[in-house]
Amino acid sequence: MFVVTGATGKVGGQVIRQLQGAGLPTRAVLRDKARAAAFQALGCNTAFASMDDAAALARAFATAEAVFVLLPPVFDPSEDFAETRANVAALVAALHLARPRRVVALSTIGAQAAQVNLLTQLQMMERGLAALPMPLAFLRAAWFMENAAWDIDEARSLGVLSSFLQPLDKAVPMVATADVAETAAQMLQDSWEGHRVIELEGPVRVTPSGLAATLGRVLGREVVARAVPRTTWESLFRSQGMVNPLPRMRMLDGFNEGWIEFEAAAGETRKGRTGLDTVLSRLAASAVQQRASS
Q1: How does residue 93 score in pLDDT terms, banded at 50, 70 and 90?
Q2: Mean pLDDT value across the chain
Q3: Rounded CA separation 84/17 (Å)
Q4: Cα(199)–Cα(107) distance, rounded to whole angstroms?
Q5: Cα(1)–Cα(105) distance, rounded to whole angstroms?
């Protein structure tokens, strides 16, 4: 049995489909029982657990050949990352109890960074899981291309892409979630000993100006990238409802200043196959469908 957490998300759902396409038995770990029917219709086993419930997670991981770990995103964390600490502690305890043959955990570019930022939560996960006795792999993924979904409406209506990634000509490692899922599914089927790290990015790095230009081609209109001034970030994020925006701001600083980067000496580096234009075309089509159905 191959067990997948975060099954209702973009990556987790695609991991399940990849495993099922390989003819492998899968189990989706869900929080909401109302979501179970859709997975069961695909022939997928289901289990129910919150990521801070060690006992429920251990039951979900029982008899697992391999477990895919994906922490629930916390974009507005407590100052001490209490939510992530609880999730990591429960996850470690559950994996110790269930003892799957191997574990693949989705981590991030910059997980090794010394500066505290939003991605520190994945560093905490890596350090917590490192004590596990079974073979363990961390998949450190680049900035998701799908983050551009937030830019579609503004680009279509105003021809502007407001960029927190700066300067606008600085290339950033990005990757499609389809490539993340494909790589994760492959890793779950691999055999290895000890710990491994795989760092994954897309075919080419992308500048904010390049992202805007590609989005413009997809939308059929000119789109220009404009840098959002650093001095406005805190007030802007707080106006959007964030209580503790500093970790997010420091994450963006890390990309912009270059201290969030891959740790090339840590393990293996891979490149995905999916191009930015493919991802943006899908996002734009999805946005049109959502507008039509609303």
Answers
A1: very high
A2: 96
A3: 27
A4: 9
A5: 17
Coil, strand or helix: which one is 41? helix
For residue 30, pLDDT over 90 is answered with: yes
CB 198 within 8 A of CB 140: yes
The structure's pTM equals 0.96
Q: How many CB atoms lie within 10 A of CB 230?
A: 13
Sign of CA dihedral 150, 272, 87, 78: negative
First to last CA, the chain: 39
Cα distance between residue 60 and residue 47, in whole Å = 5
Q: How far apart are CA 178 and CA 275, in angstroms?
A: 11
Whole-angstrom CA distances from 282 to 15, 17, 146 are 18, 18, 9
Could you report the per-residue pLDDT of 59-72, keeping only the tens digit for each?
Answer: 999 999 999 999 99
Confidence of residue 192 (pLDDT cuts 50, 70, 90): very high
**Strands of the chain, DSSP E:** 2-4, 26-30, 45-48, 66-69, 102-108, 136-141, 143-144, 160-163, 174-175, 195-201, 224-227, 268-271
Residue type, 13: G
Place of tokens 């503790």: 244
Q: d(Cα 56, Cα 59) in Å, to the nearest integer?
A: 5
Q: Read off the amino acid at residue 200.
A: L
